[in-house]
């Protein structure tokens, strides 16, 4: 199969769809890999690294799309790429369609086969391609939250871990999934007082088993959220419903109950965010303030640490890329239930139910 690795052109996106190590595994099997010149530079991989791994280096993004039967990316295609995508071409990347109607309609129009990393789901409900980026984002959420608590960036002027004689900050984590656990681990390591809320008691039990005593759990409901935001210095939003929009757990009116200078970090921004006041930001302009509350809502947080993120992502995507390359998408998806769940759009038709529900299309297509 002919596989293309274009340079990511989303704002401040420094990751690349595959490492040279991944390219080598494909070329050893006789597949042709086309890498856009400079695609891996920001992740620490130059053209020579890809060339010695067997890739052909192409000068422009349109050449990569033109030559390839399958495109492997990190972020969803941007408007500049829409017309490059053609019928029956496999696009394997993060899409997050439920929060982007324009992208959804463009991919329907292209009649490409859109397989989304975020909905590749094992029978046990785990999301193998989302987990490593959630691990990165969960850890980064605390790093960034701690930074934005500083006064020069309009935070309340608080050191998250405290010092002897001064109590540490309080962190509220919404969601006890991968993001929440990684965020809690980092916050606890800094010495903060951490509370995790979730509606899944099994997840809360797991948190209790693995976390130190200054990480406590409570059942998630509006009453408990309102109770905790009054004293929380940093709130992390880590709610994920696979393929669907995130629920709005903190509304605009709740911000008035928070302390001025408190920080909220919405890791769920790609799926619409779990705060009503969330809007996507970039690494160039990462934060904004509403009602004296600092919002950090960068939609590609792992893009700030591209070497770590690219290697972590290729580690989990490569086995699926190999299946698609060796067998074609139809057989690969018949043989692998997890990969089959990743199919979001085929030949102009949305086949992922949460996307239909997000745009009110489910009834129309019934």
Automatic annotation (TrEMBL):
InterPro entries membership: Ala_DH, Ala_DH/PNT_CS2, AlaDH/PNT_N, AlaDH/PNT_NAD(H)-bd, NAD(P)-bd_dom_sf
NCBIfam families reported in the protein's UniProt record: alaDH
Annotated binding of substrate, by residue: 15, 75
Domain of life: Bacteria
Pfam families: AlaDh_PNT_C (PF01262), AlaDh_PNT_N (PF05222)
CDD domains per the UniProt record, alphabetical: L-AlaDH
Catalytic residues (positions): 96 (proton donor/acceptor), 270 (proton donor/acceptor)
Record protein name field: Alanine dehydrogenase
Domain Alanine dehydrogenase/pyridine nucleotide transhydrogenase N-terminal: 4-137
Key word Glycoprotein present: no
Family to which the UniProt record says this protein belongs: Belongs to the AlaDH/PNT family.
UniProt catalytic activity: L-alanine + NAD(+) + H2O = pyruvate + NH4(+) + NADH + H(+)
Molecular function terms, GO-annotated: alanine dehydrogenase activity; nucleotide binding
Binding site for NAD(+): 134, 198, 203, 220, 239-240, 267-270, 279, 298-301
This enzyme's EC code(s): 1.4.1.1
Gene Ontology BP terms: L-alanine catabolic process
Record domain Alanine dehydrogenase/pyridine nucleotide transhydrogenase NAD(H)-binding: where: 149-297
């Amino acid at each position: 199969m002919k596989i293309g690795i274009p340079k990511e052109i989303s704002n401040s996106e420094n990751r690349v769809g595959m490492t040279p190590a991944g390219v080598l595994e494909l070329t050893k099997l006789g597949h042709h890999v086309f890498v856009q010149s400079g695609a891996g530079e920001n992740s620490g991989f130059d053209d020579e690294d890809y060339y010695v791994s067997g890739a052909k280096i192409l000068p422009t993004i349109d050449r990569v799309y033109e030559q390839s039967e399958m495109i492997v990316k990190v972020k969803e295609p941007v408007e500049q790429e829409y017309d490059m995508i053609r019928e029956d071409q496999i696009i394997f990347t993060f899409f997050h369609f439920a929060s982007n109607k324009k992208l959804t309609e463009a991919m329907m129009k292209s009649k490409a086969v859109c397989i989304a990393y975020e909905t590749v789901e094992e029978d046990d409900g785990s999301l193998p391609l989302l987990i490593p980026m959630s691990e990165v984002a969960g850890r980064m959420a605390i790093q960034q939250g701690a930074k934005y608590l500083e006064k020069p960036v309009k935070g309340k002027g608080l050191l998250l871990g405290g010092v002897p004689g001064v109590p540490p900050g309080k962190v509220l984590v919404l969601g006890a999934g991968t993001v929440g656990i990684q965020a809690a681990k980092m916050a606890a390591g800094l010495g903060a007082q951490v509370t995790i809320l979730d509606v899944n008691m099994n997840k809360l039990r797991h948190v209790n088993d693995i976390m130190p005593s200054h990480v406590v759990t409570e059942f998630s409901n509006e009453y408990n959220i309102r109770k905790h935001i009054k004293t929380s210095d940093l709130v992390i939003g880590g709610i994920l419903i696979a393929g669907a929009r995130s629920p709005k757990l903190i509304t605009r009116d709740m911000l008035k109950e928070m302390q001025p200078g408190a920080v909220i970090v919405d890791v769920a921004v790609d799926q619409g965010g779990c705060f009503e006041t969330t809007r996507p930001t970039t690494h160039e302009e990462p934060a904004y303030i509403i009602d004296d509350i600092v919002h950090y809502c960068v939609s590609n947080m792992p893009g700030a640490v591209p070497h770590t993120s690219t290697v972590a992502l290729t580690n989990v995507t490569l086995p699926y890329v190999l299946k698609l390359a060796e067998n074609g998408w139809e057989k690969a998806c018949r043989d692998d239930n997890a990969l089959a769940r990743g199919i979001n759009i085929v030949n102009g038709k949305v086949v992922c139910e949460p996307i239909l529900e997000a745009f009110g299309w489910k009834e129309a297509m019934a």
